[in-house]
Amino acid sequence: MSHFIAEPKQGVPFVSVQIMAKLINKVGIENVLLELTQRLKHDFARWDEFDKSPRYAAHSPDGVIELMPVSDGEMFSCKYVNGHPKNTFKELQTVAAFGILSDVDSGYPVMISEMCLLTALRTAATSALVAKYLAPKHSTTLTLIGNGAQSEFQALAFKAVLGITHIRLYDIDKNASKKAYNNLSGYGLNITICNSAEEAVQSAHIITTCTADKKNATILTSDMIPQGVHLNAIGGDCPGKTELDSQLLTRANVFVEYEPQTRIEGEIQQMSSSFDVTEFHKVINKQTPGRTSNNELTIFDGVGFASEDFTALVYIKDALVAAGEFELLDLITQQADPRNLFSVLNSTQPSKTTKQEQVA
Protein backbone atom coordinates (compact mmCIF):
# COMPACT_ATOMS: atom_id res chain seq x y z
CA MET A 1 0.00 0.00 0.00
CA SER A 2 2.53 2.54 -1.17
CA HIS A 3 0.01 5.37 -1.28
CA PHE A 4 -0.65 5.52 2.46
CA ILE A 5 0.89 8.45 4.30
CA ALA A 6 0.29 6.69 7.61
CA GLU A 7 -0.18 3.05 8.54
CA PRO A 8 -3.92 2.29 8.37
CA LYS A 9 -3.88 0.96 11.93
CA GLN A 10 -2.75 4.38 13.14
CA GLY A 11 -5.81 6.12 11.73
CA VAL A 12 -6.82 7.97 8.58
CA PRO A 13 -4.90 11.20 7.84
CA PHE A 14 -7.18 14.23 8.08
CA VAL A 15 -6.45 17.73 6.74
CA SER A 16 -8.42 20.28 8.72
CA VAL A 17 -9.03 23.87 7.65
CA GLN A 18 -6.30 25.02 10.04
CA ILE A 19 -3.77 22.51 8.71
CA MET A 20 -4.62 23.44 5.11
CA ALA A 21 -4.25 27.17 5.82
CA LYS A 22 -0.97 26.59 7.66
CA LEU A 23 0.42 24.53 4.78
CA ILE A 24 -0.59 27.12 2.14
CA ASN A 25 1.03 29.90 4.13
CA LYS A 26 4.17 27.84 4.69
CA VAL A 27 4.62 27.09 0.97
CA GLY A 28 3.25 30.48 -0.17
CA ILE A 29 -0.06 30.76 -1.99
CA GLU A 30 1.49 31.75 -5.33
CA ASN A 31 3.92 28.82 -5.12
CA VAL A 32 1.02 26.48 -4.33
CA LEU A 33 -0.88 27.79 -7.37
CA LEU A 34 2.16 27.34 -9.62
CA GLU A 35 2.77 23.80 -8.36
CA LEU A 36 -0.91 22.89 -8.70
CA THR A 37 -0.94 24.21 -12.25
CA GLN A 38 1.92 21.89 -13.16
CA ARG A 39 0.16 18.92 -11.53
CA LEU A 40 -3.05 19.74 -13.40
CA LYS A 41 -1.19 19.89 -16.70
CA HIS A 42 0.31 16.47 -16.01
CA ASP A 43 -3.07 14.93 -15.21
CA PHE A 44 -4.87 16.54 -18.17
CA ALA A 45 -2.13 15.00 -20.33
CA ARG A 46 -3.12 11.52 -19.07
CA TRP A 47 -6.85 12.16 -19.45
CA ASP A 48 -7.60 8.71 -20.89
CA GLU A 49 -6.29 7.01 -17.75
CA PHE A 50 -9.17 8.38 -15.67
CA ASP A 51 -12.50 6.60 -15.20
CA LYS A 52 -14.84 9.56 -15.74
CA SER A 53 -18.54 10.30 -15.33
CA PRO A 54 -20.71 13.39 -14.82
CA ARG A 55 -21.15 14.31 -11.18
CA TYR A 56 -24.14 13.13 -9.16
CA ALA A 57 -26.33 16.11 -8.27
CA ALA A 58 -29.29 16.49 -5.91
CA HIS A 59 -31.06 19.74 -6.80
CA SER A 60 -33.41 21.78 -4.65
CA PRO A 61 -35.05 25.20 -5.21
CA ASP A 62 -32.27 26.98 -3.30
CA GLY A 63 -29.19 25.00 -4.29
CA VAL A 64 -27.51 21.75 -5.17
CA ILE A 65 -25.52 19.04 -3.37
CA GLU A 66 -23.08 17.11 -5.54
CA LEU A 67 -20.73 14.14 -5.40
CA MET A 68 -17.76 14.20 -7.78
CA PRO A 69 -15.99 10.81 -8.17
CA VAL A 70 -13.06 9.83 -10.38
CA SER A 71 -10.28 7.22 -10.42
CA ASP A 72 -7.01 6.65 -12.28
CA GLY A 73 -6.96 2.94 -11.43
CA GLU A 74 -4.55 3.37 -8.52
CA MET A 75 -6.36 5.96 -6.44
CA PHE A 76 -9.98 7.02 -6.20
CA SER A 77 -11.24 10.42 -5.10
CA CYS A 78 -14.65 11.87 -4.40
CA LYS A 79 -15.66 15.37 -3.33
CA TYR A 80 -18.83 16.36 -1.54
CA VAL A 81 -19.74 19.92 -2.49
CA ASN A 82 -22.80 22.14 -2.37
CA GLY A 83 -23.83 25.37 -4.06
CA HIS A 84 -26.41 27.47 -2.21
CA PRO A 85 -26.32 31.14 -3.32
CA LYS A 86 -28.78 32.27 -0.63
CA ASN A 87 -26.43 31.08 2.11
CA THR A 88 -24.72 34.47 2.12
CA PHE A 89 -27.92 35.99 3.57
CA LYS A 90 -27.68 33.49 6.45
CA GLU A 91 -24.01 34.30 7.07
CA LEU A 92 -23.09 30.90 5.63
CA GLN A 93 -20.74 30.09 2.76
CA THR A 94 -22.22 29.54 -0.69
CA VAL A 95 -19.96 26.52 -1.11
CA ALA A 96 -18.88 23.97 1.50
CA ALA A 97 -16.81 20.96 0.52
CA PHE A 98 -14.69 18.06 1.72
CA GLY A 99 -13.00 15.22 -0.13
CA ILE A 100 -11.63 11.73 0.26
CA LEU A 101 -8.70 10.02 -1.45
CA SER A 102 -8.61 6.20 -1.37
CA ASP A 103 -6.31 3.33 -2.34
CA VAL A 104 -7.98 1.33 -5.12
CA ASP A 105 -6.25 -1.97 -4.24
CA SER A 106 -7.55 -2.07 -0.67
CA GLY A 107 -10.42 0.40 -0.76
CA TYR A 108 -8.97 2.05 2.34
CA PRO A 109 -9.04 5.86 2.69
CA VAL A 110 -5.65 7.46 2.17
CA MET A 111 -6.72 10.93 3.28
CA ILE A 112 -9.76 13.01 4.14
CA SER A 113 -9.50 16.75 3.60
CA GLU A 114 -11.35 20.02 3.82
CA MET A 115 -12.00 21.27 0.30
CA CYS A 116 -13.30 24.81 0.67
CA LEU A 117 -9.80 26.26 0.40
CA LEU A 118 -8.58 23.42 -1.82
CA THR A 119 -11.44 23.83 -4.32
CA ALA A 120 -10.72 27.55 -4.58
CA LEU A 121 -7.06 26.78 -5.25
CA ARG A 122 -7.69 24.09 -7.87
CA THR A 123 -10.33 26.20 -9.63
CA ALA A 124 -7.97 29.16 -9.85
CA ALA A 125 -5.06 26.97 -10.97
CA THR A 126 -7.23 25.35 -13.66
CA SER A 127 -8.35 28.78 -14.91
CA ALA A 128 -4.75 29.96 -15.17
CA LEU A 129 -3.58 26.76 -16.87
CA VAL A 130 -6.31 27.03 -19.52
CA ALA A 131 -5.59 30.73 -20.04
CA LYS A 132 -1.93 29.94 -20.62
CA TYR A 133 -3.02 28.20 -23.82
CA LEU A 134 -6.05 30.31 -24.77
CA ALA A 135 -5.44 33.90 -23.62
CA PRO A 136 -3.75 36.54 -25.79
CA LYS A 137 0.03 36.49 -25.51
CA HIS A 138 1.52 39.01 -23.09
CA SER A 139 -1.82 39.56 -21.31
CA THR A 140 -1.51 42.03 -18.46
CA THR A 141 -5.10 42.92 -17.47
CA LEU A 142 -7.65 40.63 -15.81
CA THR A 143 -11.25 41.61 -15.12
CA LEU A 144 -13.05 39.81 -12.30
CA ILE A 145 -16.85 40.03 -12.49
CA GLY A 146 -18.21 38.60 -9.27
CA ASN A 147 -15.89 39.33 -6.34
CA GLY A 148 -16.93 36.63 -3.89
CA ALA A 149 -14.94 33.82 -2.31
CA GLN A 150 -13.10 32.81 -5.50
CA SER A 151 -11.90 36.22 -6.70
CA GLU A 152 -8.61 36.59 -4.79
CA PHE A 153 -7.52 33.06 -5.72
CA GLN A 154 -8.22 33.80 -9.40
CA ALA A 155 -6.24 37.03 -9.29
CA LEU A 156 -3.20 35.42 -7.66
CA ALA A 157 -3.25 32.41 -9.98
CA PHE A 158 -3.23 34.63 -13.06
CA LYS A 159 -0.47 36.74 -11.52
CA ALA A 160 1.67 33.70 -10.69
CA VAL A 161 1.11 31.74 -13.93
CA LEU A 162 0.61 34.45 -16.58
CA GLY A 163 2.23 37.51 -15.03
CA ILE A 164 -0.96 39.58 -14.81
CA THR A 165 -0.26 43.01 -13.32
CA HIS A 166 -3.64 44.81 -13.49
CA ILE A 167 -6.93 43.70 -11.92
CA ARG A 168 -10.32 45.29 -12.61
CA LEU A 169 -13.07 44.43 -10.12
CA TYR A 170 -16.84 44.57 -10.43
CA ASP A 171 -19.63 43.16 -8.28
CA ILE A 172 -23.23 44.29 -7.77
CA ASP A 173 -22.28 44.34 -4.08
CA LYS A 174 -19.59 47.00 -3.81
CA ASN A 175 -18.54 45.64 -0.42
CA ALA A 176 -17.45 42.44 -2.15
CA SER A 177 -15.18 44.46 -4.45
CA LYS A 178 -13.77 46.36 -1.47
CA LYS A 179 -13.11 43.05 0.28
CA ALA A 180 -11.21 41.72 -2.74
CA TYR A 181 -9.30 45.01 -3.08
CA ASN A 182 -8.19 44.90 0.55
CA ASN A 183 -7.18 41.23 0.41
CA LEU A 184 -5.13 41.73 -2.76
CA SER A 185 -3.55 45.05 -1.83
CA GLY A 186 -0.30 43.50 -0.55
CA TYR A 187 0.49 41.43 -3.66
CA GLY A 188 1.96 44.06 -5.98
CA LEU A 189 -1.07 44.35 -8.25
CA ASN A 190 -2.61 47.48 -9.78
CA ILE A 191 -6.26 47.16 -8.74
CA THR A 192 -9.29 49.19 -9.88
CA ILE A 193 -12.85 48.94 -8.57
CA CYS A 194 -15.34 49.58 -11.37
CA ASN A 195 -18.94 50.78 -11.26
CA SER A 196 -20.37 48.52 -13.96
CA ALA A 197 -19.60 45.39 -15.94
CA GLU A 198 -19.27 47.57 -19.05
CA GLU A 199 -16.59 49.66 -17.37
CA ALA A 200 -14.82 46.61 -15.93
CA VAL A 201 -14.28 44.83 -19.25
CA GLN A 202 -12.68 47.85 -20.93
CA SER A 203 -9.06 47.13 -21.96
CA ALA A 204 -9.19 43.64 -20.42
CA HIS A 205 -7.26 40.80 -22.02
CA ILE A 206 -8.88 38.14 -19.83
CA ILE A 207 -12.32 38.28 -18.21
CA THR A 208 -13.42 35.93 -15.44
CA THR A 209 -17.12 35.69 -14.63
CA CYS A 210 -17.78 34.10 -11.25
CA THR A 211 -21.32 34.78 -10.10
CA ALA A 212 -23.50 32.50 -8.01
CA ASP A 213 -27.21 33.21 -8.64
CA LYS A 214 -29.10 30.04 -9.52
CA LYS A 215 -30.77 31.43 -12.63
CA ASN A 216 -30.28 32.13 -16.30
CA ALA A 217 -28.53 35.47 -16.31
CA THR A 218 -26.70 37.54 -18.89
CA ILE A 219 -23.71 39.03 -17.13
CA LEU A 220 -21.96 39.81 -20.42
CA THR A 221 -23.64 40.61 -23.71
CA SER A 222 -22.04 40.09 -27.09
CA ASP A 223 -21.74 43.81 -27.85
CA MET A 224 -19.62 44.33 -24.67
CA ILE A 225 -16.84 41.94 -25.71
CA PRO A 226 -14.46 42.60 -28.62
CA GLN A 227 -12.59 39.95 -30.56
CA GLY A 228 -9.20 38.93 -29.18
CA VAL A 229 -10.36 38.49 -25.56
CA HIS A 230 -10.32 35.31 -23.48
CA LEU A 231 -13.42 34.67 -21.33
CA ASN A 232 -13.08 32.44 -18.28
CA ALA A 233 -16.69 31.55 -17.35
CA ILE A 234 -16.49 29.68 -14.04
CA GLY A 235 -19.53 30.77 -12.02
CA GLY A 236 -21.35 28.26 -9.78
CA ASP A 237 -22.83 26.19 -12.57
CA CYS A 238 -25.92 24.00 -12.62
CA PRO A 239 -28.87 23.33 -14.92
CA GLY A 240 -30.68 26.62 -15.50
CA LYS A 241 -27.64 28.72 -14.48
CA THR A 242 -25.77 30.74 -17.09
CA GLU A 243 -23.74 33.96 -17.25
CA LEU A 244 -23.04 34.62 -20.94
CA ASP A 245 -25.11 35.85 -23.87
CA SER A 246 -25.55 32.90 -26.26
CA GLN A 247 -24.29 35.13 -29.10
CA LEU A 248 -20.92 35.24 -27.35
CA LEU A 249 -20.75 31.47 -27.53
CA THR A 250 -21.65 31.54 -31.21
CA ARG A 251 -18.78 33.98 -31.93
CA ALA A 252 -16.17 32.08 -29.92
CA ASN A 253 -14.08 28.96 -29.90
CA VAL A 254 -15.39 27.23 -26.77
CA PHE A 255 -13.32 24.90 -24.60
CA VAL A 256 -14.61 22.65 -21.81
CA GLU A 257 -13.27 20.10 -19.33
CA TYR A 258 -15.58 17.08 -19.77
CA GLU A 259 -18.22 17.65 -22.42
CA PRO A 260 -20.99 15.35 -21.04
CA GLN A 261 -20.97 17.28 -17.75
CA THR A 262 -20.69 20.74 -19.31
CA ARG A 263 -23.67 20.03 -21.59
CA ILE A 264 -25.77 19.62 -18.44
CA GLU A 265 -24.68 22.62 -16.38
CA GLY A 266 -22.30 24.86 -18.32
CA GLU A 267 -22.85 27.88 -20.52
CA ILE A 268 -23.33 25.54 -23.49
CA GLN A 269 -26.59 24.21 -22.01
CA GLN A 270 -28.10 27.15 -23.92
CA MET A 271 -26.92 25.71 -27.22
CA SER A 272 -28.03 22.77 -29.35
CA SER A 273 -26.41 19.37 -28.88
CA SER A 274 -24.60 19.89 -32.17
CA PHE A 275 -22.84 23.06 -30.97
CA ASP A 276 -19.12 22.40 -31.35
CA VAL A 277 -16.79 22.51 -28.32
CA THR A 278 -13.25 21.26 -27.61
CA GLU A 279 -12.21 19.33 -24.50
CA PHE A 280 -9.16 21.04 -23.03
CA HIS A 281 -7.06 17.88 -22.67
CA LYS A 282 -6.82 17.81 -26.48
CA VAL A 283 -5.00 21.15 -26.35
CA ILE A 284 -2.56 19.86 -23.72
CA ASN A 285 -1.89 16.77 -25.83
CA LYS A 286 -1.50 18.83 -29.03
CA GLN A 287 -4.42 17.08 -30.72
CA THR A 288 -5.94 20.47 -31.46
CA PRO A 289 -4.62 24.04 -31.22
CA GLY A 290 -5.55 26.49 -28.48
CA ARG A 291 -5.64 30.13 -29.50
CA THR A 292 -4.86 30.42 -33.21
CA SER A 293 -4.87 34.20 -33.77
CA ASN A 294 -4.76 37.51 -31.92
CA ASN A 295 -8.24 38.34 -33.20
CA GLU A 296 -9.85 35.15 -31.89
CA LEU A 297 -12.45 35.14 -29.10
CA THR A 298 -11.94 32.15 -26.80
CA ILE A 299 -14.19 30.95 -23.97
CA PHE A 300 -13.41 28.44 -21.26
CA ASP A 301 -16.76 27.10 -20.06
CA GLY A 302 -15.39 25.79 -16.78
CA VAL A 303 -17.74 23.90 -14.47
CA GLY A 304 -15.05 22.10 -12.47
CA PHE A 305 -14.37 18.40 -12.95
CA ALA A 306 -13.55 15.58 -10.54
CA SER A 307 -10.09 14.96 -12.02
CA GLU A 308 -9.08 18.45 -10.85
CA ASP A 309 -10.11 17.53 -7.30
CA PHE A 310 -8.14 14.29 -7.64
CA THR A 311 -5.06 16.28 -8.67
CA ALA A 312 -5.48 18.70 -5.79
CA LEU A 313 -5.96 15.94 -3.20
CA VAL A 314 -2.88 14.04 -4.40
CA TYR A 315 -0.88 17.28 -4.37
CA ILE A 316 -1.91 18.00 -0.78
CA LYS A 317 -1.18 14.42 0.26
CA ASP A 318 2.35 14.73 -1.12
CA ALA A 319 2.82 18.15 0.49
CA LEU A 320 1.76 16.75 3.86
CA VAL A 321 4.27 13.92 3.54
CA ALA A 322 6.98 16.54 3.11
CA ALA A 323 5.67 18.70 5.95
CA GLY A 324 4.82 15.83 8.28
CA GLU A 325 1.71 17.66 9.46
CA PHE A 326 -1.71 16.06 9.61
CA GLU A 327 -4.20 14.73 12.12
CA LEU A 328 -5.38 11.13 12.39
CA LEU A 329 -9.02 10.08 12.49
CA ASP A 330 -10.21 6.88 14.14
CA LEU A 331 -12.40 6.15 11.13
CA ILE A 332 -11.80 2.49 10.24
CA THR A 333 -12.20 -0.36 12.73
CA GLN A 334 -8.90 -2.13 13.48
CA GLN A 335 -9.87 -5.28 15.43
CA ALA A 336 -7.32 -8.10 15.67
CA ASP A 337 -9.49 -10.45 13.59
CA PRO A 338 -10.77 -8.53 10.53
CA ARG A 339 -13.75 -10.92 10.33
CA ASN A 340 -14.78 -10.30 13.93
CA LEU A 341 -16.34 -6.84 13.63
CA PHE A 342 -18.59 -7.53 16.61
CA SER A 343 -15.53 -7.68 18.84
CA VAL A 344 -15.22 -3.91 18.53
CA LEU A 345 -18.49 -3.57 20.46
CA ASN A 346 -17.34 -6.05 23.11
CA SER A 347 -14.10 -4.14 23.62
CA THR A 348 -15.96 -0.95 24.49
CA GLN A 349 -18.67 -2.42 26.74
CA PRO A 350 -18.44 -2.09 30.54
CA SER A 351 -17.58 -5.39 32.21
CA LYS A 352 -20.59 -7.65 32.82
CA THR A 353 -21.35 -9.55 36.03
CA THR A 354 -23.32 -12.76 36.23
CA LYS A 355 -26.43 -13.20 38.37
CA GLN A 356 -24.46 -15.45 40.72
CA GLU A 357 -21.85 -12.70 41.20
CA GLN A 358 -24.60 -10.17 41.92
CA VAL A 359 -26.19 -12.51 44.60
CA ALA A 360 -22.86 -13.19 46.24
UniProtKB/TrEMBL annotation:
Coiled coil (UniProt feature): none
Organism superkingdom: Bacteria
Enzymatic class: lyase
GO molecular function: ornithine cyclodeaminase activity
The enzyme's E.C. designation: 4.3.1.12
UniProt keyword Ribonucleoprotein, yes or no: no
NCBIfam families the UniProt entry points to: PRK07589.1
The protein's name in its UniProt record: Ornithine cyclodeaminase
Lineage: Bacteria, Pseudomonadati, Pseudomonadota, Gammaproteobacteria, Alteromonadales
